[in-house]
Amino acid sequence: MTDTRSVVEAFFGFRAKNDIDGLLTLIADDADFHAFGDPGIPWLGSYTGPSGAAEFFGLLFKGITDTGTEVDAMLVDGEEAAVFGRVRVNVNAVDKPYESPFALRLTVRDGKIVRHHVFEDSYGLHEVWRRG
């Protein structure tokens, strides 16, 4: 599995199962992760490589429970993929729902993800987190 679409589809398969070990098989040593938003929310921030990805996904999977996230479209151009959809989760620390459109930029080289940048309504997440 080296083409971008196959890697992205595998990524979402592992992601749907909260399978960190599976996800890590797809992460390059120098992968650049960014989840933009309030640095007070544990999983938001910048991470590098498999160890950073393990930390990110560990915090994310502890912090939220998926309640119906949907992928609407995936666009692939060479190494680049853009995925659009709607995230629906429960924020576990405050036991409140959060919903937002999202865009995820993934770059795949040699069958590994080298860039993972996620964009969503980080202010909305901040409000859910802070107001609990």
Textual characterization of the structure:
This protein is α+β, with helices and mostly antiparallel strands and 132 residues long. The chain has one domain (4-131): Nuclear Transport Factor 2, Chain: A (Roll), CATH 3.10.450.50. It is built from 4 helices and 7 strands. Strands 1, 2, 3, 4, 5, 6 and 7 form a 7-stranded mixed sheet that branches.
What is the CATH level 1 assignment? Answer: Alpha Beta
Q: Helicity, in percent?
A: 25-40%
**Would you list the SSEs in sequence order as H and E?**
HHEEHEEEEEH
CATH topology annotation: Nuclear Transport Factor 2, Chain: A
Question: What's the helix and strand layout?
Answer:
Layout: H1 4-16, H2 20-24, E1 27-35, E2 45-48, H3 49-63, E3 64-66, E4 70-77, E5 80-91, E6 96-109, E7 112-120, H4 122-131
Parallel strand pairs: 1-7
Antiparallel strand pairs: 1-2, 3-5, 4-5, 5-6, 6-7
Organism: Stackebrandtia nassauensis (strain DSM 44728 / CIP 108903 / NRRL B-16338 / NBRC 102104 / LLR-40K-21)
Domain SnoaL-like: 8-116
InterPro entries: NTF2-like_dom_sf, SnoaL-like
